[in-house]
Amino acid sequence: MFKLSIHIALLLFVLGFFFTNTALSETTDVTADSAISPGANLVLILTIDGAIGTVTADRVIEAVKQAEEEHAALLLILMDTPGGFNDSFWAITKAMMNSQVPVAIYVYPVGARAASAGVYITYAAHIAAMAPSTSIGAAHVVSGTGQPIDSVLEEKIMNDAVAALKGMAERHGRNADWAEKAARESASITSNEALALKVIDFVATDVDDLLRQINGFEVNTVLGKKKVDVTEPLKKPLKKTLIQTILEIISSPNVAFILFSLGGLGIVIELYNPGAILPGIVGGICMILAFYSFRTLPINYAGLLLILFAILLFILEIKIVSHGLLTIGGVISLIIGGMMLIDTADPSLRISKSVIFAVTVVIGGFVLTAFTLALKARIARPTTGVEGLVGQVGKVKQRIDPTGYVYVAGELWEARADEPIDEGAAVEVLEVKDLKIKVKRKV
Predict the structure, then answer these.
(1) Is 156 a catalytic residue?
(2) pLDDT tens across 99-156, in order?
(3) Each residue of 368-397: b (16+ CB within 10 Å) or e?
(4) Structural domain tally of the chain?
């Protein structure tokens, strides 16, 4: 029953985790018009909500390609992001700047932000807009070690990033000086300030308001000057596929850490209880998904090795009696490894400390419980078989002098003692040898 409970709990956890998040991740902000006729003023609407990663980059690139294939009038991207990882947002800006269809970035809804990587994506768009009470900025470049750039080589990286950002600003007639300030000094401003400084082109209350404002707006595409025609627009939202949703979920730093830790726990359970099968299968799947996540994230390999070392210590705790020292070492290694795992200085893109501590407590608690049960099983006195007779009390059925017979544990045993013991006396079993027992008088 205990094995079955572990199996069911692990399976329900994994299935529930993915399908719950999948349901919550569907885009529901904008609804498509009922019909789209050929040659209509088609507006494709893509939503970016959260950190910019590999999956987000793939979605934007696919959206640009689809907009060109369907001859859309506009690709509108609704964005709310704390930032993202360098390779991903550079791929997005490149795809947008080379798009034959005008691309508009709209920082939306109210309270949204375009931070860090969001600044570069906004500047790369043909049209930049924000909803009221939104913000943009904090685009300071960080190095691969997750620290602010300060060395000569890294200063070159900063200059290159700033030059790219200023180039985007000049191409679309936006404020290049503020772009440099955002990159070098992490400056941030509100939507109204951004409009006044010509960082963006429009402030709009909603999508319909934005489309009314940009109708007839001239932009500079790779094909030359082009006026945006969204008269009576037909809006078509681009929703994430199930695969994209799952990949986006597991590409989150928090989820990657949970998957890797859950995979390690599954392996520990399988080794603690060989033949259980399901924990090993679930653990293996979680490990594979975690390694996919690591491929899309900037991983600090020292942190990854610390987590692997923690899993090794947890496994050894079950095999070696260390009185909890290995578990303590594993907990410390898991916490430090989790904090170091994602190689970025942006707190919003790192693994949450609450997630690290929660996962560590769960795994450490399980390993400690398994170790305690294993230790009790090792030191417990046998209660069955021949060894289980030692210490039990019986009754003499035939006088012992020096041998006789004793009734103990429901059977009659030939017994010997160091002194004569009369029939009917109570005796205690001292040892069992060659199916004969040695007893002493029970005081």
Answers:
(1) yes
(2) 999 999 999 999 999 998 999 999 999 999 999 999 999 887 654 444 444 566 667 7
(3) bebbeeeeeeeeeeeeeeeeebeeeebebb
(4) 3
- Contacts with 146 (C-beta within 8 Å, 6 or more apart), sequence order: 298, 300, 343, 344, 345
Residue-wise pLDDT for 350-383, tens only, equals 899 999 999 999 888 887 787 777 666 666 555 5
Task: Name the 3-class secondary structure at 441.
Answer: strand
Q: How far apart are CA 392 and CA 47, in angstroms?
A: 74
**Which are the contacts of 297, defined by CB distance < 8 A and separation ≥ 6?**
53, 85, 251, 253, 256, 342
Same domain, 272 and 347: yes
List the catalytic residue out of 65, 156, 227, 395.
156
Crossing angle of helices 242-250/2-24, nearest 10°? 110
> What distance in Å separates the CA atoms of residue 116 and residue 120, rounded to the nearest whole number?
7
Q: Are 171 and 73 in contact (CB under 8 A)?
A: no
One domain, residues 66 and 167: yes
116 is catalytic: yes
Identified catalytic residue from 88, 99, 116, 293: 116
Tokens of 313: 């210590």
User: Is residue 125 in some structural domain?
Assistant: yes
192 and 262 assigned to the same domain: no
Do 201 and 315 fall into the same domain?
no
Q: Which structure tokens are listed for 199?
A: 């960082």
pTM of the model: 0.69
